[in-house]
Amino acid sequence: MKTDLARIRGEKRAAWLSVGGxxxxxxxxxxxxxxxxxxxxFADGLxxxxxxxxxIIVLSVIGYANKPADDDHPYGHGKAEVIISGIxxxxxxxxxxxxxxxxxxxxxxxxxxxxxxxxxxVAGASFAVKWALFRYTLRxxxxxxSKAIEAIAYDHKTDIAASMAAVIGILLAVFGxxxxxxxxxxxxxxxxxxxxxxxVRIAWEMLIESFHILLERSIDPDQLRAFQEVxxxxxxxxxxxRIRAREHGHYILLDVRISVPHHYxxxxxxxxxxxxxxxxxxxxxxxxxxxxxxxxxxxxx
Length: 301
Hints:
single chain; mainly alpha; Alpha-lytic protease prodomain-like; Alpha-Beta Plaits; 2 domains
């Protein structure tokens, strides 16, 4: 695995960049959304405010999640990242509910006026900024194998689609105002509802993923088969009786039961297990711990 120091620095760099970007976008979108009377842009600004809060939470937990195992947490602290990912999902759901209620009230009451075209320019600029942030954080989450940074990356992804929905809604509403066609004025609050739909979708995906990891769901079957292939490279392994692997935040814990010739001495079994463990950890740098249990193998049964 990457050294803890390098990993922490990479995660903090990505999180701080997200904090700075979301702080700027939150201030600009909420201000212009109010001044330009745009429901969609204001909703998008609230989304960025939630992103800002989420990025700050991630920053606060990065050091803890990378702490080595101790007596109280013998498997390490990696699940702290998973918990944070779930918290981010809950925050996004709360924001989505607010946006839906606010936009629905505007639609029921009827839009008062068309938003200023400035709101569309701001939403368009936000699209460009968020695309750059998404590509960067997604690349870093893969490089660092960080669930926390991955959560931020997919949060940026919702912003990309949300900003595009805001741009379209605002432009249609502006058209409705200039062409004296009131029906198009509804496009702005409808744009806010579309933004909320994107938020709900990504929040749900984050919550489900966090839920599965916290319940220690097994890793992908293809990856498990790859681990089995590594083990069978050792001719003295006669059978894999059981193999289990689970994600523990940014790393994997592996439990293996194998059968070896029954006449092996304790030392021979120990040495074989150590070599298998080293081979597995070399095959995937996400593996942090491998527990190997040896069973005696008899040729006739």
